């Protein structure tokens, strides 16, 4: 009988030792999921009409320009979601494309990006995301907070409730890259 208890105790110790390894392995697997995959999945989840390739392309541009302009890619993704719901053809009376860039206020940036990328339409994701990230970086440079930079981006700096900024910030907190 003592050998039986010794066996059970040994089995218990092995199981207790291996369980944390399994949960660590699960955590490791989750952390190995690339930011590109995570961003692409987030975009696709919020605009299922997009092709996987388009979602991945948008995600790649977001990550690239976030790095180039030293921005949090979750903020760029959240701005895109709030501004256009990831519709590259979105437009209203002022803004165009994924980041709803307003041509009349940012013509010099648009011209620069057109030369850099040899792309002419503001609805082109590469150009639109680059210009949008550039605008947001400039807003960050002159603002006292991310909230203020977001209000500047949206042209609602005078909004006492910070509605737009709160919406973007709340959304950015839901994004895991």
- How does the major sheet shape up? none
Instruction: Kindly identify the CATH topology of the largest domain.
Output: Lysozyme
Tell me the series of helices and strands, N- to C-terminal.
HHHHHHHH
Number of domain units: 2
Helix fraction, binned, reads: 55-70%
CATH class of the largest domain: Mainly Alpha
Share of β-strand residues: under 5%
Q: Mean pLDDT, as a whole number?
A: 87
Content-based structural category: mainly alpha
Outline type: globular
Low-confidence stretches: 4-23
Between the first and last Cα atoms, what is the distance in angstroms?
Answer: 53 Å
**DSSP E strands, number:** 0
- Radius of gyration from the alpha-carbon trace, in angstroms: 23 Å
**Number of contiguous helices:** 8
CATH architecture type of the largest domain: Orthogonal Bundle
Written overview of the protein:
- With 177 residues, this protein is an all-alpha fold.
- Helices cover 68% and strands 0% of the residues.
- It contains eight helices and no strands.
- α4 (73-84) crosses α8 and α5 (107-117) packs across α6.
- It starts with a helix and ends in a 5-residue tail after the last helix.
- The radius of gyration is 23 Å and the shape is globular.
- Residues 4-23 have low confidence and may be disordered.
- The longest helix is centred in the first third of the chain and has 31 residues, at 2-32.
């Amino acid at each position: 009988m003592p050998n039986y208890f010794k066996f059970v105790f040994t089995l218990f110790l092995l199981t207790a030792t291996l369980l944390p390894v399994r949960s660590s392995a699960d955590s490791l697997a989750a952390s190995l999921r690339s930011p590109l995959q995570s961003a692409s999945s987030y975009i696709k989840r919020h605009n299922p009409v997009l092709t996987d390739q388009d979602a991945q392309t948008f995600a790649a541009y977001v990550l690239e320009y976030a790095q180039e302009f030293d921005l949090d890619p979750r903020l760029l993704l959240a701005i895109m979601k709030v501004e256009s719901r990831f519709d590259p053809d979105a437009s209203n009376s002022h803004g165009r494309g994924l980041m709803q860039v307003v041509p009349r206020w940012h013509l010099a940036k648009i011209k620069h990006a057109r030369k850099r990328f040899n792309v002419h339409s503001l609805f082109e994701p590469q150009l639109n995301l680059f210009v949008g990230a550039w605008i947001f970086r400039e807003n960050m440079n002159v603002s006292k907070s991310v909230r203020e930079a977001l209000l500047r981006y949206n042209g609602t700096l005078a909004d006492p409730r910070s509605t737009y900024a709160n919406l973007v910030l709340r959304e950015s907190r839901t994004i895991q890259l």
